[in-house]
């Protein structure tokens, strides 16, 4: 199941995009899919996340969190987007550039 929640935040000057990891999807692809949606480009047009975050370590941390029944989140910035990855296999991407624009997509 894929879920997206795009809406202006009342106390924030940005738009948040929430994405849930699909069955069998890697953490890296979940992040890239969310960023691609935020930027309205295909995943193939995105730059590597290598310089911004070590995605394998994020995946390992999330796996350990699930195995130990604990909550964790990792926050990093890439291309002026703040990305929060949680142990519930979802991400929240804050896009300050789209804060004042209308965004709507039917799923």
Briefly characterize the structure.
The chain has about 110 residues and is of the alpha+beta class. It is about 25% helix and about 25% strand. Strand 1 (about 5-10) and strand 2 (about 15-20) form a beta hairpin.
Distance between the termini: 11 Å
Note the main sheet: 5 strands, antiparallel
Quaternary state, please? Answer: single chain
- Range of strand content: 15-25%
Which class of secondary structure composition applies to the elements? alpha+beta
Radius of gyration: 14 Å
- Total helices: the number is 2
Q: Could you say how many structural domains there are in total?
A: 1
Q: How many DSSP-defined strands?
A: 5
**Shape assignment:** globular
- The arrangement of helices and strands along the chain is EEHHEEE
Strand order of the largest sheet: 1-2-5-4-3
Protein name: Halobacterial output domain-containing protein
Domain Halobacterial output: 24-94
InterPro entries: HalOD1
Describe it.
This protein is an alpha+beta fold. It has 2 helices and 5 strands. It has helices spanning 27-39, 55-67, and strands at residues 7-8, 15-20, 73-78, 81-86, 90-95. A hairpin with a 3-residue loop joins β4 (81-86) and β5 (90-95). This is Halobacterial output domain-containing protein. It comes from Natronorubrum daqingense.
SSE topology sketch:
Blueprint (H helix, E strand, L loop, with lengths): L6 E2 L6 E6 L6 H13 L15 H13 L5 E6 L2 E6 L3 E6 L12
Antiparallel strand pairs: 1-2, 2-5, 3-4, 4-5
What are the salient characteristics of this protein?
107 residues; HalOD1; single chain; Halobacterial output domain-containing protein; alpha+beta; 2 helices; 24% helix; disordered C terminus
């Amino acid at each position: 199941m894929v879920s997206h929640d795009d809406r202006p935040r009342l106390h924030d000057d940005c738009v948040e995009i929430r994405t849930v990891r699909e069955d069998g999807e890697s953490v890296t692809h979940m992040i890239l899919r969310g960023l691609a949606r935020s930027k309205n480009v295909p995943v193939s047009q995105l730059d590597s996340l290598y310089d911004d975050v070590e995605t394998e370590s994020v995946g390992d941390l999330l796996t350990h969190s699930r195995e130990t029944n604990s909550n964790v989140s990792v926050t990093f910035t890439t291309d002026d987007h703040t990305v929060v990855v949680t142990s519930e296999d979802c991400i929240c991407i804050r896009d300050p550039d789209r804060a004042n624009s209308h965004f709507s997509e039917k799923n």
